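Project outcomes to date are best conveyed with an example. Our students and postdoctoral researchers have been running inverse folding experiments weekly, and each run begins with a structure described purely in tokens. The record below, which covers 674 residues, was selected by the lab manager from last quarter's runs and is presented without edits.
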């Protein structure tokens, strides 16, 4: 468990020519005379990338690197890929960095290479916050995907779920940085490689050659770049275990991968809310044709249709896999929204103030600040409100516009008034090879061919169980009513009791027992109620009253300043999960699991790499509770990575927490004690 998500910055000395030198390692990031050429020689040429890209059969090529540094290797690979690979192919570049540069360091370091400045600037713009964890950065409309682990290299690779084609083993010289080149690192390099995976490295040090040899690589010394005598290259020529087995790490019940990837022809995403829109968008960006079926007559007609929502990450005071998910998802969502909406049409990163509900919570906030678990850019003390926290990256979203924007991608076709009624597996050779979907009241007549899909993703929130194709997940609906009031009426109400109307003119989202966002379209939106076991879909005045009490507390106004008769509202239903974590991943069979993994009832610590059931190309993405604006973009990218067989944007530990089969496994382990 980490004690802080903050990371040490690199200690740099800048040469007169502007090149960075690491004081921690007393080594250079790149050769200042010939950095670009050296990278191209050592890493691109010696992994035979031009040849491999020119004849690339699969859709994506995966490079993994030790030591992101200034990103120069990444930029060179990106540049070459654009010219050398077919335009429908994707490059996934994974890198790790223990001492991430700040944006301004990166800007300074990359000034040295004007010939690639058009790419450097895009990297700098998209560069994630310096915060421990896994970050997914999408460039060139998704054609280039960067997966960056900020933290210790070994930890990053230990939690990685990816099948790597070529390794760039950079990192400072082993003599100056022996800790990085550990046996465990080599073990994971092997785990993440397949027969035919290559590596190259600038060093010819024995520790590196031996390490790679010991895990099965064929290793050769070749002539180094320029004046340098030697460097090392190699390849994994022996067969490896299957991809599911390699990724299992003893927990095959959380398998996500297929050995022989099913061709992705057309994907059906069911549900046009935040989960469906984000899933469809993530797939569409990878060049996949997606059909979205929505039973309602509009996009975002369910919980995702609230007029204005906010990003409230509820950062925990301890590092846990679930907190890592929300932190990573939060940063991902803010980057996505900013990239989609540069003109504040539906997203305003105005910041959010979290006000303590009581003294105990104020104490917890202070502890969070004192212990510095989070970087200041993510969490700091509010200057506007006593005892409160400021989340500067947060803000509000107009949900419908967001969903419409995501679904407007040219690869997505939305079918409204189209309810998925029935889903049946198409089998061949004892394997599921696709799905036949049957719609109810659809707008256009479909035939069987049109309703056959290679993959299906259910983003159907509370309606998922009714489809009868998933195992018994413990999600349940929670009614929520949001309210809104005309800003002029709110001002009149303030004046009537002698309060300043300035209280209505705030510029950040305020959160306490509920939330209120800065006004849009002359309306102040606030809420919301949280009603368990209540399926009434009508707006209720008592709901407005409860929401107004929240609003008055947030704005430091006396009780009953406002009149519930002046309010409008909307009711919808959250899809909640008892462990407050969404359910995202492949749907597996409960019966098969119970049989295959019954040993867990006798020994909860039992480990297995034997996968009981192949992936059936059916996925769910539900249970986003009260935080769908945060959790759905990363969940969508995650589902897309599983369908396309590309690197996961989630740490394995995190994906296990989201796995739809986690409840079956939990019950098996629990039954041990009965
Ligand atoms: C009152 C309230 C306030 C909230 N405020 C916030 C907030 O400020 N910030 C935040 O992050 N989150 C907030 N949330 C939570 C957020 O709205 C949800 O997490 C999110 O909308 C869930 O998205 P979804 O796509 O999973 O579900 P939904 O938006 O409900 O979408 C599911 C869709 O699937 C469709 N569907 C279901 N079955 C079928 C079928 N068989 N065939 C075809 N279509 C089908 C439905 O019609 C629906 O459109 C709030 C929720 C509520 C209720
Ligand atoms: C030579 S530089 C990499 C240069 C980089 N590839 C580039 O293109 O700019 C080596 C990098 O490895 C990082 N590093 C060193 N030890 C590490 C470790 N144990 N885990 C992760 N990163 C590490 C350093 O901080 C440094 O940025």
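After processing, the design step wrote out the following sequence:
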């Amino acid at each position: 468990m980490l004690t802080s998500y903050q990371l040490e910055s690199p200690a740099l000395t800048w040469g007169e020519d502007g090149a960075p030198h690491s004081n921690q390692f007393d080594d250079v990031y790149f050769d200042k005379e010939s950095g670009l050429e050296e990278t191209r020689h050592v890493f691109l040429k010696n992994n035979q990338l031009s040849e491999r890209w020119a004849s690339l059969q699969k859709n994506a090529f995966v490079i993994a690197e030790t030591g992101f540094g200034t990103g120069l290797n990444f930029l060179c690979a990106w540049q070459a890929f654009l010219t050398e690979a077919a335009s429908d192919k994707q490059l996934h570049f994974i890198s790790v960095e223990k001492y991430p540069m700040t944006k301004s360091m990166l800007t300074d370091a990359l000034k040295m290479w004007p010939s690639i400045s058009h790419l450097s600037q895009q990297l700098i713009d998209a560069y994630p916050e310096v915060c421990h964890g896994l970050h997914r950065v999408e460039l060139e409309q998704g054609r280039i995907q960067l997966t960056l682990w900020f933290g210790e290299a070994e930890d990053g690779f230990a939690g990685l779920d990816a099948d790597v084609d070529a390794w760039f083993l950079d990192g400072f010289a082993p003599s100056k940085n022996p800790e990085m080149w550990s046996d465990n690192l080599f073990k994971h390099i092997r785990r993440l490689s397949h027969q035919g995976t290559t590596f190259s490295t600038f060093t010819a040090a024995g520790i590196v050659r031996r390490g790679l040899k010991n895990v099965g690589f064929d290793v050769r010394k070749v002539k180094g770049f320029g004046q340098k005598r030697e460097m090392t290259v190699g390849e994994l020529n022996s067969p490896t275990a299957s991809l599911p087995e390699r990724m299992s790490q003893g927990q095959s019940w959380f398998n996500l991968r297929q050995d022989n990837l099913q061709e992705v022809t057309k994907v059906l995403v069911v549900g046009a809310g935040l989960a469906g829109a984000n899933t469809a968008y993530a797939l569409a960006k990878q060049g996949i044709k997606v059909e979205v079926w929505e039973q309602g007559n509009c996009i975002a007609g369910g919980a995702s249709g609230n007029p204005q929502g906010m990003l409230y990450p509820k950062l925990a005071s301890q590092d846990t896999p679930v907190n890592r998910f929300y932190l990573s998802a939060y940063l991902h969502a803010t980057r996505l929204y900013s990239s989609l909406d540069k003109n504040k049409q539906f997203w305003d990163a105005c910041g959010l103030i979290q006000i303590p509900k009581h003294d105990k919570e104020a104490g917890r906030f202070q502890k969070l600040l004192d212990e510095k678990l989070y970087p200041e850019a993510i969490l700091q003390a509010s200057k506007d409100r006593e005892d409160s926290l400021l989340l500067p990256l947060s803000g509000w979203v107009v949900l419908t516009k967001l969903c419409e924007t995501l679904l407007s991608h040219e690869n997505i076709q939305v079918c409204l008034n189209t309810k998925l009624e029935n889903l049946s597996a198409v089998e061949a050779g004892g394997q599921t090879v696709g799905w036949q979907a049957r719609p109810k009241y659809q707008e256009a007549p479909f035939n069987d061919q049109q309703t056959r899909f290679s993959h299906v993703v259910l983003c159907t929130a509370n309606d998922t169980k009714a489809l009868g194709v998933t195992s018994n997940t413990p999600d349940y609906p929670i009614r929520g009513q949001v309210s809104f009031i005309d800003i002029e009426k709110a001002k009149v109400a303030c004046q009537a009791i002698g309060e300043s109307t300035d209280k209505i003119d705030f510029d950040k989202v305020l959160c306490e027992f509920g939330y209120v966002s800065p006004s849009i379209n002359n309306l102040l939106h606030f809420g919301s109620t949280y009603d368990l076991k209540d399926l009434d879909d009508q707006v209720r005045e008592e709901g407005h009253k409860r929401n107004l009490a929240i609003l008055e507390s947030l704005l430091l106004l006396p009780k009953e300043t406002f009149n519930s008769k002046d309010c409008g509202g909307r009711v919808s239903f959250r899809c909640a999960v008892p462990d407050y974590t969404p359910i995202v991943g492949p749907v597996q069979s409960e019966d098969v699991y119970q049989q295959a993994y019954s040993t867990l009832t006798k020994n909860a610590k039992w480990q297995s790499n034997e996968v009981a059931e192949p992936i059936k190309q059916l996925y769910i993405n539900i249970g986003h509770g009260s935080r769908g604006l945060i959790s759905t973009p990363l969940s969508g990218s995650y589902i897309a990575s599983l369908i396309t067989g590309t690197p996961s944007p989630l740490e394995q530990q995190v994906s296990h927490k989201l796995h739809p089969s986690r409840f079956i496994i939990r019950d098996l382990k629990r039954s041990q004690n009965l």
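Residues 321-340 form the longest helix (20 residues). The first strand starts at residue 12 and ends at 14. The training component of this project remains on track.
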